[in-house]
Amino acid sequence: MSPKQTNSRLEIVQGQIIKTIAVTFLVFGAITMIIPFLWSVITSLKSAENVFSHSAFWIQFPPDFSAYKQIWARIPLLTYAGNTLKVALLVTFGQLATSSLAGFAFARIKFPGRDKLFFFYIATMMVPGMVLLIPNFVVMKNLGAINTHWALILSAVGSAFGTFLMRQFFLSFPSELEDAAKLDGCNPFMFYWHILLPNSKPILTTLGLMAFQGIWNDFQWPLIVLNSASKRTLQLGLSYLMSEYYTDWTLLMAGAILTLLPIILLFFAVQKYFVQSFKFTGLKG
Amino acid sequence: MAIDSKSQISPSSNWSKKNKIKEALWGYFLISPNFLIILLFTIIPVFFSFYMSLTDWNILSAPSFIGLENYQNILKDALAKETFLNTFYFTVVSVPINVIFTLILAILLNQKIKGITFFRTAYYLPVISASVAVSLMFMWILANNGLLNQMLESIGIEPIRWLTNPKIALNSVIGVTVWKGLGLNMIIFLAALQDIPKELLEAAAIDGANRIQQFFKITIPLISPIIFFVTITGVIGSFQSFDLVYNMTKGGPGHATTVIGYYIWKQAFDYMHMGYGAALAYIVFIAILVLTIIQWVLRKRWVYSEE
Questions:
Q1: Is there a single domain that holds both residue A34 and residue A154?
Q2: pLDDT tens digits, A65-114
Q3: Which of A50, A134, A139 to mutate to test the interface with B (most CBs of B within 10 A)?
Q4: CA-wise closest residue to A227 among A146, A155, A134, A156
Q5: Per-residue pLDDT for B9 more than 50?
Q6: Do residue A149 and residue A253 come from a single domain?
Q7: Does residue B120 fall inside a structural domain?
Q8: Which residues, other chains included, contact A247 with Cβ-Cβ below 8 Å and sequence gap of 6+?
Q9: Which residue of B has its CA nearest to A141?
Q10: Is the CB of B48 less than 8 angstroms away from the CB of A138?
Q11: Has residue B170 got a pLDDT over 70?
């Protein structure tokens, strides 16, 4: 056997070992990721009296769906879902509109001070959200928006990050397109509306998902600006459920699963765009 | 990152060359809705917040200007000190664990393995999940008679009071934070690893470098800007953590899990000490600003040194 062959065989064995270790590690990690969800589902399908009387590993069969029935009577889940959906959709479309318009202007229109203003825009992305909580509360109070959904919507319909993202995307269109549009008598808005937007669906979907998911999952800002029960979002409602029905685990787990479900379903429907949005999240700072 | 903030200046546009004013007006007009929001809810608040930090203000009455008194009080505030120490501990434990684990996961996922879609999906699930639901799930797992203690019991280990023992609670919150954040940095590292040209690694292999040498001499230096980026954003994120603490421990037991994000909320919105809260937030803001600037400066240097 020539030394060369031994070498390559050694490499194959080495590769196999590395792959086995990799798979073992990944499987172990994946189980750690999934078990909390699985355990929540299993708990939510137990009868309340069985939660503590049996071991954690025991699975009730047939499952008891009563927690999923009771929860509607304990908190107005449908109202919370409606509130959340309303705010999330308004913010998503508002943010897409203002960001794509501003991104378009930064990318394709010349005006004095444009590049300085854009640099300034980028700089505002560095401001951490925590610093804005207190002053924005005061701003919202002066606008009379405290304890209304406007407090959640207004501050989120504009986005420096969204503008940045749209600008980068619009820069990639060839300038010939613009010339052709101009010959056809388009004004800048018509060019944006008829040519750029229809060709920007992937980036709009990604940005829209980020906005939607951000609002759906947001907790701290709604906690600060909303106080009446009827205005609550899903996350506030769930947090309230926890403080009211502490240790009623079947109910709490059913609540957690129900509020997670829409986003998880959305995730499976458009996973590609979600992954794209993760890559941008770091940039958002 | 795929996007370079200093990318090319846009191609010279040619809307109405004769009428530059008209074009400029279009520009300002199209930017204005977005700009107004940024102005009102980011730019003005940054300055206004600093003014607030110089006042005594309970929101109900008018603010009274007290100069630097809030900042002086922070220096004397024993709880603020404890809070900063907790935050420091939270950061130096959670960030390195997160970075090391996500890098390992990304490297493993970068091998040609079957079922990669399943693995990725599993690691993404916690990232898209809302923090309130995650808090609930883990309060039940970490409860005295929860899943984790029952698992420990089955192998003969005494139950641990994960969320009610002051020496352990902060570590439990860190654990959940790491669990929730793994998928996010993993995808960022994975993208960076896939950007490494295959020829480089092949060339090194021909020169006799083994996998470990390839990893430390080629892979790590090439993704070092990303490692640094992920570390800084991780530190910034941990300075702001709030949701898990609020829902799982309310900062307790005692003040064991009171981190700065929670303490600021508590001062400003529970005690209505708006000025004091603003001063605390401004200190964190300056710290984050310094980190961000360091990140930008060093990143630029790294990018140049690659060429």
A1: no
A2: 888 988 898 889 999 999 999 999 999 999 999 999 999 999 988 889 89
A3: A134
A4: A146
A5: no
A6: yes
A7: yes
A8: none
A9: B59
A10: yes
A11: yes
* Final residue before a domain boundary, out of A18, A52, A67: A67
Give the best residue of A131, A166, A203, A250 to mutate against chain B (max B CB count within 10 A).
A131
Token pair listed for B59? 């929101």
Instruction: Name the residue with higher pLDDT: A89 or B307.
Output: A89
Residue A176: its chain B contacts at CB < 8 A?
none
* pLDDT at position A2 over 50: no
* pLDDT given for residue B11 in this prediction: 46
Contact flag A175-B12 (C-beta cutoff 8 Å) = yes
B34, B143, B146: residue with CB nearest A102: B34
Within its chain, how far is the Cα of A103 from the centroid? 21
pLDDT at position B173, please?
A: 96
- Checking if the pLDDT of B67 tops 90, the result is no
Interchain CB contact of A25 with B (< 8 Å)? yes
Q: How far apart are CA A209 and CA A204, in angstroms?
A: 8
Q: Which residue has the tokens 């393995």?
A: B113
Residue tagged 């603020």 (tokens): B80
The residue among B10, B101, B211, B250 with the most chain A CBs within 10 A of its CB, best to mutate, is B10
Kindly state whether A259 is in contact with chain B, defined as any CB-CB distance less than 8 angstroms. Answer: yes
Domain that holds residue B176: 75-306
Same domain, A270 and A182: yes
Distance between CA A221 and CA A236 in Å, rounded?
10
User: Cα separation of A192 and A198, whole Å?
Assistant: 9
* A122 within 8 A of A188, measured Cβ to Cβ: no
**Residue A237 sits in the same domain as residue A253:** yes
Please state the domain count of chain B.
1
- DSSP secondary structure letter of residue B143: S
CATH number, position B172: 1.10.3720.10
Query: Does B216 fall in a domain?
Result: yes
Residue A256 has pLDDT above 80, yes or no: yes
Are B133 and A26 inside 8 Å of each other by CB? no
Q: Examine the domain organization and report whether A105 and A243 are in the same domain.
A: yes
Question: Average pLDDT for residues B233-242, to the nearest whole number?
Answer: 91
Q: Chain B residue closest to A125 (CA)?
A: B42
Distance from CA of B121 to the nearest CA of A (A): 9
Return the CATH number at A274.
1.10.3720.10
Output DSSP code: residue A227: -
List, in sequence order, every residue forming a beta bridge with B64; answer none if it has no partner.
B56
- DSSP code for A230: G
Is the pLDDT at A53 greater than 80? The verdict is: no
Listed ranges A2-11, B189-198, B275-284; the one with the highest mean pLDDT? B275-284
